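Model: Ready when you are.
Researcher: Fold this.
Model:
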Amino acid sequence: MKKKLYFLDIDGTLALGKTLIPGAASLIEEIHRQGAHCCYLTNNSSKGIDEYLAQFEQWGIPADREEFMTAGIYVAKRLKAEFKDKKIFVLGTESFLFECRREGLCVTQEAEEDVAAVLMAYDTELTYEKIRRVCRLLEVHRFIRPWYATNADLCCPSEFGMVPDCGAISKMISLAVGREPEFLGKPDPGMIDYVLKQYEIARQDAMIVGDRLYTDIECGKRAGIATCLVLTGEETEDSEVADHCFLSVEGLAKNLHSERQSL
């Protein structure tokens, strides 16, 4: 199981809300002890990198900005390359808007006629007025204006259970406007492909660790890398779909430690 790069999902894998899952810190420490890299690969675009860095600091886990790749960051990079300085309507949190602007994307939250595309994210600051504006933009130019969403996750794990994620919000709007967005986050392998190029690491030397079959594990399979499912989030039963399965990241940490000790 030893790899050079581990893609680690956050929500449901390393943490539930702001609560760190037992064994998460040990896993990250063991990965670094082996001289390997961590990439925190999350579909959660409601938070910016600064917020994640602050949260990891509270957990006592050292982390660098370059170790994070969110669906929001990846989508902003991709749309910037495609639309350049054209205006993009964004439904998302203030943190997500900040990240989009930092990537050079021209964003607005007004339903203006010169909007070239609509982008939706996991918006924990959602209002009905935002939903109305998205519907207006998608109805006015139904077959011209592209509609993108960061991720297809229907729910996001929290300390008390699940809450609606970007996929659920998108579904609600889809039912109203009669069309669906193009999802650019996991399970699309684009984020993994991008990071592998940055690190110059081969696919056989990478593994994704996550709690969800239809995003995390499916993303790893589409990208051609090893997969590891943990049962602390949405999935609660072992699955033969993933290459490896543990009750939590604590089991993976112990396994990697044993492998290193046996060498």
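Researcher: Now this one.
Model:
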Amino acid sequence: MEQNLNQYRIFYAVAQAGSISKASEKLYISQPAVSKSISKLEESLDAVLLKRSRKGITLTDEGKTLFEQLGIAFAAIEAGEKKIKNLHDLGIGKIKIGVSASLCRFILVPFLKGFIEENPHVSITIVNQSSAKTFKLLEQGKIDAALVVNQNGDDFGDDFIAVSELEDIFVATPTYIENLKTRIASPDADTPTLLESANLMLLDEENISRIFVDNYLNQHGIEVNKFLEVTNMDLLIEFAKIGMGVSCVIREMARKELDEGSLVELPLKFPMNKRTVGFILPKENLAVPTVSNFKKFIVENMEQIVTERK
């Protein structure tokens, strides 16, 4: 659009009013200024838009065409403004969150439940990827927020909101442990010995939790002779429950099975360090009202949600 939008607005007001003086009053602009704007628009379009007479003004054919098209354009602008106002009034917006499948079910869902209740018109997209890939998506600006495990003690500054701690443990059924001790003829075997002889079930080797567990095993000289790789924490728990072996799981995610006794924890002389879970919400993304509101919800409701989850 080569012309100043204001010139089109002035022309449209004159055409609607059928008079330069009436348009002048409506726009709170002097009549000479209105006439000058119309003249500039006609000059730039190389067309006569108005015919002036003592009785007022009439539109030329070119003027009628422009008036009709401007009516459509201004109606579209008005509709856009109304939609934006509606977005603000209803709290309508979008947010895209990156998270691993396990963290999504056990940690993100309780936060989303409350957030959706307060913001029913928000569109939420969940991108399920490993924590490592989630970090990359966040760096590339493909997601607005991320729920990740900060197991290296990285300093994310104010962008990071810690919401929970994870404790990794080894679990199996009581029957599997007894059978394993019988098989290796060592009723008093310690956990490292049991792990070396067991069918150890772990997440796949690219998973950030698997890397953490591998480092622990290497650090304490535990050599695993037989293991099964599983894609998610739910399967690790289910496979352990049917006696397939010993699974390395997150305590909080197997709390139900531990409480009911279907799984028991293998004691570790040197427990694995707890890891911190939290949301990363980059400052530049907080300019989006929905993202800012999500952060506010996390901060204000974190204590209650974490308590209920326990």
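Researcher: Key takeaway?
Model: Residues 61-90 form the longest helix (30 residues).
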